Amino acid sequence: MTSMEARFGDATRTVPLPNPWNLTAYLAAVATHRGRSISLHPVPTTLLAETGCGIGGLWVARKHDDIIVYDADATGRRADHIILHEIGHMLLDHGKDGGTGGSVPPSVAVILPSISPHSIERVLGRDEFDADHEREAEVFADMTLVYATLPRRRRRSFRWFRRRK
């Protein structure tokens, strides 16, 4: 089993996917696991692009909670994918050494005007993660959405498709 496989398996055993799939329930389970609330903040595409995240998402880690900023024009599966990508970074522990480290980019103050810059510990966007972390978060989001649409089972977790010997 590869390291990525093991980490994904650990993530879904730690925070199982709800059955039936419900993004709100999954976010609540992730928040409970992490001991930090998670809020979603949709913003216009143009404002998000100014943060360097293109039309994707941004993870804002504050002292006691997390905010996922995502493209307000994204709907349905696309919005879920962006949000799950950021959750992937959280569950795969990508943010522990990255981010702005207390320096809040001015663009974040524009997209989150009600948030005190002093409460922000890290702003983690596409530029803060290396290619491997971005790929892992992308695969995590893809796999989560695939498993969310599979036929109902008692409990869902990632299982890799392997040949039986």
**Could you state the order of secondary-structure elements as H and E?**
HHEHEEHHEH
User: Into how many domains do the coordinates divide?
Assistant: 1
Uncertain segments are: 161-165
Q: Which descriptor suits the 3D outline? A: globular
Beginning-to-end CA distance, first to last residue:
15 Å
Main β-sheet description: 4 strands, mixed
User: Count of helical segments?
Assistant: 6
Strand-residue fraction?
15-25%
Helix content: 40-55%
Biggest sheet strand line-up: 1-3-2-4
Number of extended strands: 4
Cα-atom radius of gyration: 16 Å
**Helix vs. strand class:** alpha+beta
Overall average residue pLDDT: 79
How would you explain this protein's 3D organization?
Strands 1-3-2-4 form a four-stranded mixed sheet. It has one domain (3-148). A hairpin with a 2-residue loop joins strand 2 and strand 3 (65-71). It contains six helices and four strands. The chain is α+β, with helices and mostly antiparallel strands. The chain starts with a helix and ends in a 17-residue tail after the last helix. The relative contact order is 0.19. The longest helix has 18 residues, at 131-148. It has helices at 3-14, 23-34, 45-49, 76-91, 106-111, 131-148, and strands at residues 37-43, 57-62, 65-71, 120-124.
